[in-house]
Design goal:
The protein is α+β, with helices and mostly antiparallel strands. The protein contains 8 helices and 5 strands. A hairpin with a 3-residue loop joins strand 4 and strand 5.
Length: 220
C-alpha cells in the first residue's frame, strides 16, 4: 500500500507498475524488481539484515504475513530478520506504538495474528491506546504493563528509529523489504507488470529477496 493510498484501506489489489516481466533472464533486474539505495546503510559485520516494513492495518501486509512468517523461520544463520512498523499518518503512528510496546513486552509475535484478524476480519480500528489495552488484555497482556510500555521512553525511541530507517530506505508503500542496507523490493514491485494474486506476489517478492540476500552475501 502506497503512502498516498492510505485513505483507500480496502483496495482490492495492489497497484502494479508497467515494469515489464517480473524476472528477466539471469534473475531479477535492478530498477524493475528491486532498487539499490544511493547511499548504503550501516550494517552489522557478518550479518545480512532483512527488514520488512509493514503496517498492521494494511490489507496487503495482512495477505503477505503467512508467506513471510514461514520464510523467516527458515533463514540461514547469517541472515537477521526483523519487522519495522511504519508511521505514515496519525492513526498509523498509534499502531506503530502498539507494535513497539508489545515488542518491549516480548508479546508482539504471539499476539500479531489476533491483531491482524481483529483489524481485517472484525473491522476493529485499534487506533486508541485504551482500546488497544482492553483488546490485548483478553490475549494475556497485562493492561497496566502495556500502558507503561506504550508511554515509555524506550518505545518512543524505537518509533523514532523506525521512522529514520523508513526514511533511509525511502519507503513509500508497504509491505516493502529492505536487504543488507542496500536493496529494496516489495510484492508489488517484484511482480510488476504481471497478473498475479496476493499469494503469488508475496512468493515472487521472497524469491527476489533471496536473490538480494545472495548479492549482499557476495557484496556484489
Amino acid at each position: 500500500m502506497k503512502r498516498r493510498d492510505f485513505s483507500a484501506l480496502f483496495a482490492t489489489a495492489p497497484v502494479l507498475g508497467a515494469a515489464g516481466s517480473a524476472l528477466a533472464q539471469g534473475g531479477p533486474v535492478e530498477g524493475r524488481q528491486y532498487n539499490v539505495l544511493g547511499t548504503p546503510l550501516p550494517t552489522t559485520p557478518g550479518k545480512i539484515e532483512v527488514v520488512e516494513f509493514f503496517w498492521y492495518g494494511c490489507p496487503h501486509c495482512y495477505a503477505f504475513e503467512p508467506a513471510i512468517e514461514a520464510w523467516s523461520k527458515q533463514l540461514p544463520a547469517d541472515v537477521a530478520f526483523r519487522k519495522a512498523h511504519v508511521a505514515f499518518r496519525a492513526n498509523v503512528k498509534i499502531h506503530q506504538r502498539m507494535f513497539y510496546a508489545l515488542e518491549a513486552l516480548g508479546k508482539e509475535a504471539e499476539v500479531r495474528p489476533a491483531i491482524f484478524n481483529a483489524m481485517h476480519q472484525q473491522g476493529q480500528a485499534l487506533d486508541d491506546p485504551k482500546a488497544q489495552a482492553k483488546f490485548l488484555s483478553a490475549l494475556g497482556v497485562d493492561p497496566n504493563k502495556y500502558q507503561e510500555a506504550y508511554n515509555s521512553f524506550g518505545v518512543v525511541t524505537k518509533c523514532q528509529q523506525a521512522e529514520k530507517l523508513s526514511e533511509a530506505y525511502r519507503i513509500d508503500g508497504v509491505p516493502s523489504i529492505g536487504v543488507g542496507g542496500r536493496f529494496l523490493t516489495s510484492p508489488a514491485q517484484a511482480g510488476a507488470g504481471q497478473r498475479m494474486n496476493e499469494l503469488e506476489l508475496g512468493q515472487k517478492a521472497l524469491q527476489v529477496t533471496d536473490f538480494l540476500i545472495q548479492r549482499a552475501r557476495n557484496k556484489a
